[in-house]
Amino acid sequence: MDYQILFNVAVAIIGALGGWIMKLAYQAIDELKCNHKSVSDQILALNLKLALEYVQKNDFKELCAKIEGQFDKMDDRLCEKFKVVGDQLDIIEREMEQKIERKADRHERVA
Questions:
Q1: Do 8 and 43 reside in the same domain of the chain?
Q2: Which residues contact 55 (CB under 8 A, 6 or more apart)?
Q3: Is the domain of 86 the same as that of 96?
Q4: Mean pLDDT, the chain, whole residue set
Q5: Domain range enclosing 67
Q6: 111 pLDDT band (50/70/90 cuts)?
Q7: Which of 54, 70, 95 is the last residue of a domain?
Q8: Residue 55 above 90 pLDDT?
């Protein structure tokens, strides 16, 4: 056998193996491109979904301001109610003190 034929067969086998490896690499790269596009589409869909479903910062601030205003109104109402109740308790306390003083005066008179 001549060395030239052996060399030609070796180059052909190496070339075939190299081509097959290049084909596998190209298929892997193509598959990665498809997966990347799919993931990119999912991320874009998620961004759109988040933009539609969640509250925007300005809307949230307005809502917080409204709620704070309502809490302030409730606080004012409660303060008014407690003031009225406190005033009534003061009146009752004075009446009770007066009754106690009257009873004490009666007991002093009797004694």
A1: yes
A2: 63
A3: yes
A4: 88
A5: 55-111
A6: low
A7: 54
A8: no
Give CA–CA dist 17/11, Å, rounded. Answer: 10
AA letter at 23: K
**Pairwise pLDDT comparison (68 vs 46), residue with the higher score:** 68
Q: What is the pLDDT of residues 3-46, one digit of tens each?
A: 899 999 999 999 999 999 999 999 999 999 988 988 888 888 88
Q: What is the C-alpha to C-alpha distance for residues 91 and 83, in angstroms, rounded to an integer?
A: 12
Q: Tokens 């409730």 sit at which residue? A: 74
In this structure, the answer to whether residues 65 and 104 fall within a common structural domain is yes
**What gap in Å lies between CA 17 and CA 12, rounded to an integer?**
9
Both tokens of 70, joined, read: 């309502």
Two structure tokens written together for 74: 């409730």
CA dist., res. 61 & res. 59, Å (int) = 5
Residue with tokens 């917080």: 64
Which two three-digit tokens encode residue 31? Answer: 């598959």
- Are 50 and 63 part of one and the same domain? no
Q: Which helix (H) or strand (E) holds 52?
A: helix 3-53
